[in-house]
Amino acid sequence: MATRDLSLYQPDTVPSARGMKFGIVVSEWNHDITGALKQGAVDTLLLHGAQPSDIRVCYVPGSFELTSGAQCFLEYTDVDAVIALGCVIQGNTPHFTYICQGVTQGLTRLTTEYNIPVIFGVLTTDTHQQAADRAGGVLGNKGVEAAVTAIKMAALHRDFSAQDPSET
Ligand code: DLZ
């Protein structure tokens, strides 16, 4: 099995997150995993300059509800990006497929409808061990990757929205 930390990145390639606002929506299902993802995301946002008061976390029952939780941030707050964190583990029924399809399509729809980055930080694995490996284990922490992606996308949106159209 590969043991490369997939979350390794060059910190100096990440823009400053100072002044950016983030919403993090966390699924309670498989909470040992999603709690670790949340910790990785929060630590990473802080490391890159986000203020604790600019990071708001909310919880939803399962990954299927991540879309609705993300929509609350987009509709009722002025976040620069939303990070959706969940963990869906394959069982013996097609439930896995329906949840994964639902949340993927839901988050994709939101990010285009609101034109605000919504980051997909959902682990979709066959086993609990595979999830643990990616939630602070030997393969890194998907929450870290989601936070880095959120900062980069928020910076991209800020750059474009600050541009004078006559100068492009
Ligand atoms: C029902 C269910 C099952 C079987 N498995 C998971 C899972 O592995 N990960 C997860 O985040 N949520 C799971 N859920 C709950 C659904 O996401 C959702 O909360 C319920 O179907 C209610 O809409």
Q: Can you give keywords for this protein?
A:
alpha/beta, Rossmann fold, globular, binds ligand DLZ
Structure overview:
Helix 1 (31-47) packs across helix 5 (142-162) and helix 2 (66-76) runs parallel beside helix 3. The strands form 2 sheets. The protein has a 4-stranded parallel β-sheet, with helices on both faces. With 168 residues, it is an alpha/beta fold. The chain has helices spanning 31-47, 66-76, 95-114, 128-133, 142-162, and strands at 22-27, 55-60, 81-89, 118-125, 135-137, 140-141. Strand 5 and strand 6 form a beta hairpin. The protein has one domain: Lumazine/riboflavin synthase (Rossmann fold, 3-Layer(aba) Sandwich). It binds ligand DLZ. Ligand DLZ is lined by residues 27, 29-30, 61-65, 86-89, 91, 95, 99.
Fold topology:
Blueprint: E1 22-27, H1 31-47, E2 55-60, H2 66-76, E3 81-89, H3 95-114, E4 118-125, H4 128-133, E5 135-137, E6 140-141, H5 142-162
Parallel strand pairs: 1-2, 1-3, 3-4
Antiparallel strand pairs: 5-6
Helix pairs in contact: 1-5, 2-3
Question: Care to give the gist of this entry?
Answer:
With 168 residues, the chain is an alpha/beta fold.
Count of DSSP H/I helices: 5
SSE sequence, one letter per element = EHEHEHEHEEH
Q: What's the overall average pLDDT, rounded?
A: 95
Q: Going by CATH, what is the homologous superfamily?
A: Lumazine/riboflavin synthase
Q: What class, by secondary structure content?
A: alpha/beta
Number of strands: 6
Major β-sheet, in short? 4 strands, parallel
Query: Shape from CA axes?
Result: globular
Give the second-level CATH assignment, the architecture: 3-Layer(aba) Sandwich
The CATH topology label is Rossmann fold
Distance between the termini: 48 Å
Strand content: 15-25%
Name of the CATH first level? Alpha Beta
The small molecules bound here are: ligand DLZ
* Overall number of structural domains: 1
Main β-sheet, spatial strand arrangement: 2-1-3-4
Helical proportion, percent range: 40-55%
